[in-house]
Amino acid sequence: MAEIESVLKQLGQTIVEREKGEVLSFDEYLRLLAERPAAMMRNVFQLFHDMVKSSVHLMPDEYPDDPESINYVNYDTRKLFVEDSDRPFFADRLFANRLMSHVSAMKSGARQNKIYIFEGPPGSGKSTFLNNLLMKFEQYANTQDGRCYEVVWHLDRRTLGRFKEHQVGPFLEKLSHLLDEYELESQEWIHSRNILQRSGDFVEVSCPSHDSPLLMIDKHQRRAFFDNLFQNDAFKWELFTDKEYEWVFRDSPCTICTSLFQALAARLEDPEDLFRMIYVRPMRFNRRLGEGITVFNPGDRPMRQSILTNDMLQKKIDLLLGDSNEVKYLYSNFAKTNNGIYALMDVKSFNAERLLELHNIISEGIHKVEDIEENVRSLFIALMNPEDQRTIEGFHSFTDRIEFINIPYVMDLNTEVEIYRNIFGKQIDNMFLPRVLHNFARVIISSRLNIKSDALLEWIGDPEKYRLYCDEHLQILKMEIYTGHIPAWLTEEDRKRLNAKRRRKIIAESEHEGDHGFSGRESIKIFSDFFAAYARRDKMINMLHLATFFTRWRKDLRDSIPEGFIDSLVHNYDYAVLQEVKESLYYYNEQQIDRDVLHYMFAVNFEPGSVQVCSFTGEKLEITEDFLAGIEGRLLGAKVDRYTRMAFRQETQKEYTARTLTQEIMVEGKDPKDTGLFQSLKERYVFNLKEKVLEPFLENANFRRAIKDFDTDAFKTYDKRIRDDVTFLINNLSTNKYHYTKQCAKEVCVYVIDNDLAKKFQT
Prior knowledge:
The chain is of the alpha/beta class and 763 residues long. Among the domains are: 413-585, no CATH class; 590-691, no CATH class; 695-760, no CATH class. Helix content is 50%, strand content 10%. It is built from 35 helices and 19 strands. The strands form seven sheets. Strands 10-13-16-4-17 form a five-stranded parallel β-sheet, sandwiched between helices. Strands 1-9-5-8 form a four-stranded antiparallel β-sheet. A hairpin with a 2-residue loop joins strand 6 (189-192) and strand 7. Helix 4 (44-55) packs antiparallel against helix 6 and helix 19 runs antiparallel to helix 26. The N and C termini lie far apart (86 Å).
């Protein structure tokens, strides 16, 4: 029994500590404020920003040295939207960048008098997004890292008993009546500021508006007060200059706290007695109780009682203050979310009325409660379908206060695949040949993109030049850009033309996409049908299955998919697997390539016919047109014309003299092999060598048969050279770089040979 009592006591203590939290005197709070100002001095917008930032991980930049970067980065939002969630929300790269941009702006203070409306079509996951966001906010706000503090008054009866002489008689009469009325109250002892004090010695008055303790300092004295409190450091500079902290000097306490402050100041001779009655406690956020977070669904009817009070507490206050009627303990439901979050799930039915009611509250930050003005500085969030915008039509002054954030269907193919993995299990990867699962996602996303892209056409010009790798509407290219990837099949000229301005225009088009096509729910149903039809334990799902499903079996889906997209996707897949096979089959003399590139970098600075000693290798070079043209053939391809070679030679010479030699080698002291020009030339050299790597094997029937017989007894009957080449190829494809199993590698190699892909993409 003793053990049970001990366990129950410990459990009870834990509950009390969690629910009540630590109550601090105003002096103790100020000491914490001086020690940790950034953590202690936060409104709901700063708290929301810190919560999101602490939950979102910034992934490494795929192109860290890109001078044309637009900071379109990859955010890992799993901790915010997926982990510990009953219904995960998967934010694609486009939405994650959009969200993080708005969150940063919220903190700055420039967008705090607004309502944030997340607009998107049905089935885009808006409700799941908001529920998960509010859940993580509530969890964070109730931790030590996310803790915010609010005011709670402890009106000390003993101190208030020391009124001026003419106030003593009436006050004692009222106080006597008060004590008689509440004689049954607990005589429990509590510890406060190392002094044992009976709970019956004070009346606790909570601030229903969750006022920050900082607002108890007179607005006109705050600058001087903080100037004395803080050292001259970086935070103090931010506090006095950054718009993020403007609220500290601008906001006023609620009318209840203001009335109490004024009433006590008029009655207490020593101002320190007043501040001894101000206590501070952690603000508790509880969505279910409507404390700090309030969420309304469209069917939630308005409250019958819009004005809230506490008659018992009001009576105590009146008796303590001599029935002066100076303090009216009145507030509305909006007070409960002041410095918290007020959210509307779908703007329709009763929520449409609630949205319009927010007009004056958002613009002025004030709500009228009878004859009292109530402060409301909340983070207002709403969800809306595009067709519900008519709710706010005609309210031009209100639309200025609305910040729309687009939350469309997923348009990042990696995120679409993550959704399938979450629903059907990660083991589905083992049922597909590499790239095929992602190509299914590309088909779904193609229905969500606009057919025409002005930004891509302005950049690429004629899409026909990429007909072997991309569709005529360049949707495959756009999907790659949306994932943050620049395809290798782009020409060097187009890669250079992809500047920051063009990238922004391409990404900006996503704001007007994703509101049509297959919804999230539809895509899951389509994938379920596809997977059920082709998933087999003894055979992988390949591109032929994918093409057949959309073009022959589910003809009802074709109208939603751009014409010719499936064929283009097959071409793109063929190109990708061909490059992987070439890369895996290719092995080369690294030293010879380095020598050729260094010789070319050196030789372009001299006229043909001269003889020079290369300063990089020490070798004597006879610089002839044939010498230069031979290396240029490996750099540019054998079929390139003389005009292109000469232009490339001049550009290389210009880059060498302007940057490589004068800046990187002479000033920065780089090894020639570490220069940008060397790396660029070597990459070209290797690429063009790989283009020819399959030619010796395509005419050899034994090579194909050896691939099929790999890992069997029959494989031992082949010539050693063929066995070595096939083993080298399969093993390279089976590395972590390409994620093939040996069976997958065999199937892909046979596919490349049987479809003569090397000839198909021959340049």
